[in-house]
Amino acid sequence: FPSSSFALPLLKLALTVLAFLSPAAAGDLYNLVYKGCANQSFPGGAAAYGQALAALSSSLTARAATSEFYKTTASSANGGQSLFSLFQCRGDLSSSDCSACVSRLLPMWPSLCGYAAAARVQLSGCYALYQVSGFPQISGTQMLYKTCGSGGGGGDFEVNRDTAFSQLQSGVAGGQGFYTTSYGSIYTMAQCEGDLSNGDCTDCVAQAVQKSEVECGGATSGQIYLDKCYISYSYYANGVTSAGSGGGGNGGEDWQTGKTVAIVVGGAAGVGFLIICLLFARSLMRKKDGK
Hints:
Blueprint: H1 4-20, H2 26-29, E1 32-37, H3 45-64, E2 69-75, E3 82-89, H4 95-105, H5 108-113, E4 118-123, E5 126-132, E6 143-148, H6 157-173, E7 178-183, E8 186-192, H7 198-216, E9 221-226, E10 229-235, H8 255-289
Antiparallel strand pairs: 1-4, 2-3, 3-5, 4-5, 6-9, 7-8, 8-10, 9-10
């Protein structure tokens, strides 16, 4: 079959492009954003901790296959004391990506926080926490973590960012616990804890917006995590990229260039795949005729 010399490279190209165009980049979902670990140790020591976390992780993993948000309270292994936990996936994740994210996160509790009485781990695609009963509670609008990009957008950046924030808050006020929007070159996203009331969600996001304006100033990107909600925003100098829905990408990405490359490469892969099919059919016909 003389044409096989270029069939294999075409097949490799097609597979590479399919991977490139996959809807979710797993590595991005699993990026660690922050961790929060209690100073107090888990009651009952390492043995009680291990038993409690094993049972809890099993329950949460099973739920993550069908839910993007779940919380539960169960008795811990040392008896009498309850253990509260929850997980939540980013609102735009598929069920399979949500399940994979939670499964990747749960083993991080002991590896990042040891035998802590409470732990919270936030990845790009999901977060999960646990705490023993009686653990001190904090305000739902208390800031847990922030990150701000470097440099400034210049020009009308802050005006456009504030308009995008206004649209974001309006979307959340409309009953959307997860909401994304863009204005000009600004992409924004907000998510509230799954069972937060509409009014509390709206208030939480408003607080996060105010804190971002104070904490990040004119920075081109930022993420503000409060106890019950978080927001992110990014500036894209050449247009908002659809990849921005990943939750606060880097500013200045060229969406149009990326879109054009994807179309060209995808078209080439499609043609290559068609050629492979034709060559394969031709090979079968030759073998049939040779009988």
